[in-house]
């Protein structure tokens, strides 16, 4: 099989993953058409702008658009390769919502002529890539698909999960090793030829279900380890011990590396993906489920601690620093910081809550319109604060001098001011 991909690539979904992937390909000379159902996103990208904050992405997008290598549209075009990077949230019962993938597949199917590659980048439960092949076959009975036979299919289908770190996406999208799972071996090789265009890391080919599971396992590993740190912080509190100090001491052991506790776990990956493992084997994934439960219970615990501190004041002003799911990004998906503020505001509707979030201008929908919650600059909010709660360790907050916090009750959920 030819080792070098040539041709045109359509990327379905221009979010945190799809847009950087589009740019990575475009800057290496590939013609890329970005597709999104969100017209504002398409308009922004067409004008060379980025609809969210990610370091170095804006300049790369404007460069790729200005030389004509990257265009954006709401309609899936004909292409030689299609990369699907749409959301995979979970439903109320924690099973994966594959409806975005199914909708993207339905848009791609009519554009197939034979010979194309379809890659699923969205994080998915084991079996989803094969399901994509089956969905495509349902739409196109005139073509052969790889789940039907090991032979040469008309269309190649593979999974290439993404493991970039928000805030470092533009570096890691190029340097990370990539796992590529094909519905057949030929599919994996075909997809590898595409990712070799921009990947400097190793390309590891396998079958589709193993690639899907490897991605989920990576995030479950992180979740379980964070849950351990969070559980230690709860135990430390009960025993009136300084958990940060205990972790610091324990980590001097040459084979111990305990992570840091915090107000919970958020984001579109670690807080979501382990549930897909639980869904795949509910009776066996006991540790994975418990880790999710430990981490998910942390925001309410933090909220209760804030309320307890507030009860010592008459009409206190509580300042919550940070809303995003982690430091130095604008992403608030599944953010434990948002959950903490919501829980406080729900429990104490008369409490004066100020929120500081340098990465956004507006409150998220869960908080917007609440009379007792408003956004402020860090400086104004701290001036008026009785209690300061650090929820996100943004660089801007870490550098607040200790003297600025004097006279306030300080509750540092991240250990950033230690
Ligand atoms: N953000 C991360 O750091 C990260 C890391 C690894 C994996 N992932 C996975 O990558 C996938 C995408 O995540 P994301 O963070 O880029 O999501 P996102 O929400 O930032 O972007 C998804 C985009 O897809 C668009 N979209 C939805 N349905 C569509 C359709 N039918 N056709 C065209 N566009 C459509 C949305 O409008 C949105 O712009 C998810 O499965 C996620 O779990 C994300």
Could you characterize what this model shows?
The protein is an alpha/beta fold and 418 residues long. The protein folds into two domains: 8-201, Rossmann fold (3-Layer(aba) Sandwich), CATH 3.40.50.720; 219-412, Rossmann fold (3-Layer(aba) Sandwich), CATH 3.40.50. Helix content is 39%, strand content 14%. It has helices spanning 18-26, 39-46, 57-66, 99-108, 128-139, 169-175, 185-195, 208-238, 243-250, 273-280, 286-310, 336-347, 378-384, 395-398, and strands at 8-12, 31-35, 70-73, 81-84, 117-120, 156-159, 178-182, 203-207, 317-321, 352-356, 373-375, 387-390, 409-412. Strands 3-2-1-4-5-6-7-8 form an eight-stranded mixed beta sheet, with helices on both faces. Strands 11-10-9-12-13 form a five-stranded parallel beta sheet, sandwiched between helices. Helix 1 links the parallel strand 1 and strand 2. The protein binds nicotinamide-adenine-dinucleotide. The site of nicotinamide-adenine-dinucleotide has 28 residues, from helix 4. Nicotinamide-adenine-dinucleotide binds at residues 12-18, 35-38, 41, 85-88, 100, 103-104, 107, 121-123, 162, 164, 166, 268-269.
Count of structural domains: 2
How many strands, what sense, and barrel or not for the largest sheet?
Answer: 8 strands, mixed
- Average pLDDT figure: 96
Helix content: 25-40%
Report how far the terminal alpha carbons are from each other.
57 Å
In what range is the share of β-strand residues? 5-15%
Q: Give start-end ranges of low-pLDDT stretches.
A: none
- Number of DSSP-assigned strands: 13
CATH structural fold name of the largest domain: Rossmann fold
Instruction: Write down the CATH class of the largest domain.
Output: Alpha Beta
Summarize the helix and strand pattern as letters. EHEHHEEHEHEHEHEHHHHEHEEHEHE
Q: Counting H and I runs of at least 4 residues, what is the number of helices?
A: 14
Bound molecules: nicotinamide-adenine-dinucleotide
Radius of gyration: 23 Å
What shape does the CA trace take?
Answer: globular
The CATH architecture assignment of the largest domain turns out to be 3-Layer(aba) Sandwich
Strand order in space, largest sheet: 3-2-1-4-5-6-7-8
Query: Structural class, please?
Result: alpha/beta
What's the CATH H-level superfamily name of the largest domain? NAD(P)-binding Rossmann-like Domain
